[in-house]
């Protein structure tokens, strides 16, 4: 699927992880490698509850949510790196375009990645 991100100032990528250690490893790696400006680790202490169908059965899992701030031009490389680091067979990778934001924050994201 091809998506036109020409109007996106930045992107927020959603990724769920099975445990805190994996979430923190991914977060530290992608920020250090400048694939993301910032990663919020949500549910660190108690996790979030995810319901989904897997192997034709309803599943309920405690997961950790990563909110990753990056630039559109980093998405391909970021996706590849997350797939390398992630333990799931099918890791979540959902991209939300940012079409408005504080000018100084958007500039910081742009300056922090690449």
Description:
This protein is of the alpha+beta class and 114 residues long. It has a single domain, classed as 2-Layer Sandwich (Alpha-Beta Plaits), CATH 3.30.70. Helix content is 30%, strand content 34%. It contains three helices and five strands. Strands 1, 2, 3, 4 and 5 form a five-stranded antiparallel sheet that branches. A hairpin with a 2-residue loop joins β3 and β4. α1 packs antiparallel against α2. The protein starts with 9 loop residues before the first strand and ends with a helix.
A few lines on this structure:
This protein has three helices and five strands, in the order E-H-E-E-E-H-E-H. With 114 residues, it is α+β, with helices and mostly antiparallel strands.
| Dominant shape | globular
What portion of the residues fall into strands of 2 or more residues? Answer: 25-35%
Estimated structural class? alpha+beta
Proportion of helical residues: 25-40%
Q: How many domain units?
A: 1
Distance, first to last CA = 23 Å
Average pLDDT, to the nearest integer? Answer: 91
The biggest sheet amounts to:
5 strands, antiparallel
Q: Got a strand count?
A: 5
CATH level 1 class label: Alpha Beta
CATH architecture classification name: 2-Layer Sandwich
CATH topology: Alpha-Beta Plaits
- What's the number of helices? 3
Spans where pLDDT lies below 50 across 5 or more residues: none
* Radius of gyration over C-alpha positions, nearest whole angstrom: 15 Å
Please write the string of helix (H) and strand (E) elements: EHEEEHEH
């Amino acid at each position: 699927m091809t998506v036109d991100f020409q109007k996106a100032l930045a992107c927020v990528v959603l990724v769920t992880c099975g445990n805190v250690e994996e979430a923190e490893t991914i977060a530290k790696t992608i920020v250090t490698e400048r694939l993301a400006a910032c990663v919020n680790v949500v549910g660190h202490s108690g996790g979030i509850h995810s319901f989904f169908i897997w192997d034709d059965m309803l599943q309920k899992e405690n997961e950790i949510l990563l909110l990753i701030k990056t630039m559109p031009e980093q998405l391909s490389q970021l996706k590849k790196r997350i797939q390398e680091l992630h333990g799931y067979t099918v890791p979540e990778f959902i991209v939300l375009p940012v079409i408005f934001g504080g000018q100084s924050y958007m500039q910081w994201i742009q300056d922090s990645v690449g």
